[in-house]
Amino acid sequence: MRYPLTEEQLLIQQSAREFAERYVEPEAIRVDREAAFPADIIKKLAEHDFFGLVFPAEYGGIGAGFLSYVLALQEISRASASVGAILISHCALAAYSIYRWGSGEQKERYLPAMCRGDILGAFALYEPGAAPGWGEQKVVAIPKEGGYVLRGRKYFVGNGGRAGIYVVFALTGPEAGPQEMSAFVVEAGARGLSIGRDIDKMGLRGWPTTELVFHDVEVPASSLLGAQGNGLAVLKEALAAARISAAAQIAGIVEAAFQQSVKYAKERMQFGRPIARFPAIQNMIAEMAANLQLARLAVYSTADLVDKGEPFEAEAAMVHMLAARIGQKSCTDAVQIHGGYGYSRDLAVERLLRDVKGAIITDSAGEYPEFTVAESILA
Ligand SMILES: Cc1cc2nc3c(=O)[nH]c(=O)nc-3n(C[C@H](O)[C@H](O)[C@H](O)COP(=O)(O)OP(=O)(O)OC[C@H]3O[C@@H](n4cnc5c(N)ncnc54)[C@H](O)[C@@H]3O)c2cc1C
Q1: Tens digits of residue pLDDT in 304-361
Q2: 98 CA distance to ligand 1 middle (Å)
Q3: Greatest Cα-to-Cα distance within the chain, rounded to the nearest angstrom
């Protein structure tokens, strides 16, 4: 089962694999253990043009397309899903929202710097207990002459504290509701904007996730992303792009789990033979291999929809749902195949199980993938 990739896509995949092996893999354990932001790797990613893969040359990118980006993301996530997560927040959530919804001025101001990696992007949607646009959101953008005043607190902001710009969702009307939610581009240096607590996580530990506090932050009307009240439309598209990305990240994690499991099963001797000879182990490895193929094919064909300009929201939710199930099962089996050592921190395989859980939960923001899929079928 091979997805028909072009010469250029194969080349990008190969160079991302080499990049990941050379720069990301050697740092992956330290990044996880110390919950360390991988600043040097991010700098190298920028130097190697990985931040500009999706975006056209007129905005400083290399215009290789969304499929090329997910190929690179999968390779990088195989080495470190934390680094993959930083890339997703930057490319699929922040930069992609600006690319799709930004004014000409916003695109010129932010995208070239984001493609060069001069600034990182972040996406600030989440508030506890608040389904976006459905009445429980507390972050508001109160209209005032020439702009808005933002007030409130966002949680779990990936790349928080490291980003130069934040795509922020806030209610612009007195009555909460989907038509009252708007998106803004807010610069990190805006007066009244501060970084709150850095949330300590079980996985994806090298990816900073912080609170973001808005204390009467004044922004000009030109910082609106799309029109006032368009927030839900911006969110849905960015979320779909992020779901395909998270599925690619999960495919990368599963590939790591698979490779480590095959190696260990061949080396580990029990009852006088390698455990790879036991049918129980073979079944888990066979299922992992088949699922990995399935995940790859689904991710690539969904990414291709983005490149072709076709609708991809329902397919993105489907691929995230599928990858989530495959990821959870494969990483649990990988720990099982490694036995007691799999559960210990002596080996890297336990990190994969912690990271995959994060990749599953992260992009459920607001609408669960199952909900999006069911709505697309039953509406
Ligand atoms: C590592 C990490 C990074 C994150 N990064 C970001 C970020 O960069 N920007 C951002 O804005 N947010 C981010 N988030 C927040 C993330 O989007 C939310 O945590 C996620 O949407 C889940 O929301 P919740 O935590 O409120 O869970 P809840 O919505 O309270 O869910 C709790 C339980 O209820 C179930 N549930 C709830 N509603 C439904 C439903 N309609 N159908 C079926 N089941 C349902 C869930 O499956 C879950 O089991 C991040 C979260 C994590 C863990």
Answers
A1: 999 999 999 999 999 999 999 999 999 999 999 999 999 999 999 999 999 999 999 9
A2: 23
A3: 79
Ligand 1 centre and the CA of 144: distance in Å?
32
Q: Please state, for a pLDDT cut of 70, what percent of the chain lies above it.
A: 97
Nearest-atom index, ligand 1, CA of 124 = 11
Both ends of the chain: CA-CA distance in Å? 34
Q: Point out the ligand 1 atom lying closest to the alpha carbon of residue 201.
A: 1
Q: Name the nearest CA neighbour of 169 among 313, 371, 366.
A: 366
Q: Residue 320 Cα, ligand 1 centroid: separation in angstroms?
A: 14
Strand partners, 167: 123, 185
**How confident is the model over 54-97, as pLDDT tens digits?**
999 999 999 999 999 999 999 999 999 999 999 999 999 999 99
How high is the pLDDT of residue 2? 85
Question: Distance of CA 83 to CAs 50, 159, 287, 294, 299, Å?
Answer: 12, 11, 27, 24, 19
For position 153, what pLDDT does the model report? 96
Cα(128) to ligand 1 centroid in Å equals: 9
Residue ranges, comma separated, of all CATH 2.40.110.10 domains in the chain are 122-230
- Which residues, 6 or more positions from 375, have their beta carbon under 8 angstroms from its beta carbon? none
Residue listed under structure tokens 């995940």: 295
* CATH 1.10.540.10 intervals, the chain: 7-120
The domain 122-230: what is its CATH number?
2.40.110.10
**7-120: which CATH topology?**
Butyryl-Coa Dehydrogenase, subunit A; domain 1 (1.10.540)
Q: 232-378 belongs to which CATH class?
A: mainly alpha
Q: What's the rounded mean pLDDT across residues 253-268?
A: 98
Distance CA 59, CA 91 (A): 13
Q: CA–CA separation, 222 vs 171, rounded Å?
A: 17
CB of residue 362 inside a 6 A radius of ligand 1: yes
Q: Give the tens place of pLDDT for each residue, 156-209.
A: 999 999 999 999 999 997 676 778 899 999 999 999 999 999 999 999 999 999
| CA-nearest residue, atom 21 of ligand 1 | 365
Count of beta carbons in the 10 Å neighbourhood of residue 232:
20
